[in-house]
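Input (IS630 family transposase):
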Amino acid sequence: MGRRPSVFVRPVSMEEGRRLQRISRTAKDPVRLRRAIVVLMSAQGQTVKDITSLMQVGEDYVRDVIHAFNERGFDALDPKWSGGRPRTISDEVREHICLIARTSPADWKITAFSTWSLSKLAEHLVKQKVTAVISRETLRRILREGKVSWQTTTTWKASTDPEFIAKMHRVLALYDTLPADGRVICVDEFGPLNLVPRKGKAWGSVRCPRRLRATYNRYGGVMRMLAALDLATGKLYYRIRPRKRWREFLDLLKALRARWPEKKLYVVLDNFSPHKQTKVRAWAADHEVELVFLPTYGAWLNWIEAEFVALRYFALNGTDHRSHEEQNAAIAAYVRWRNARAKPKINFAPDSPIRSWTEYPAKAA
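Output:
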């Protein structure tokens, strides 16, 4: 058999040569990169055999690329994927598979297990004659394309408060328009404040995290923080006590009353039992303090909750205080820093769906 004639690309202009060089340096698609190198080498006068030896590809491949470039130009460098073989599982069957995957085995009267694995689901699909045979990998791809993912089950605690909407709107009304005759104060308890190493975030060398001691015993007892957030100024007021009974809560109310003696206080708070103690209610009624209770399971409506998150993150996480005095000093330093930069609290959850609620939703969204 005679030697096959050598093949070369058509004459390449200076601009085309620069473009080929640029593609051979920057192309991220391996097919486009390989084809550009073949064309560039051929344009430089290298034979098919030389290109085959250097690129470790077949002669037919090199000849096909050169002929394609001569016919179509730079379009020949882009791969034209055929898309593979046709799907053997129709779109209707794929949708049916995703629907079954979202059910529980109990829905099919299967009591041996409570959740599907890929193997169990594939076996069930064959048994139900949804498909003749299906591999775990094919099933996994179908579920991913159908946006069905493996997720952790979450809980939904519905409020049983018959006045949920009314209470929520009352709180939101106070947030939106602070009353001219008084102050709106958000109150809550924070803790427990025990002496333990607390995990946190900090900058450090890669793979060299900051270490904290491990402890097993809890000495020094537990302290509690009672705090109040003034929405008009955004400042935080607090006190730390060994307990959080109604007596400690009443002392906090008295301190707030003394701070603003001439204004009515609207105190937003949760349904913790000391807040509803008879003596607390009686004192509040006699001293122009209105206790505005949140609806049950609506604690996130208390504006002070976000302040507690920031306090925990910036002042306590990553610390290992050995005494309550040391820990209390850290909290005090953070509160002073925070209050020096405080601004009035406005625009509470302005775009939240709760503002359009007319009734409590029957289930989680």
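The first strand starts at residue 182 and ends at 193.
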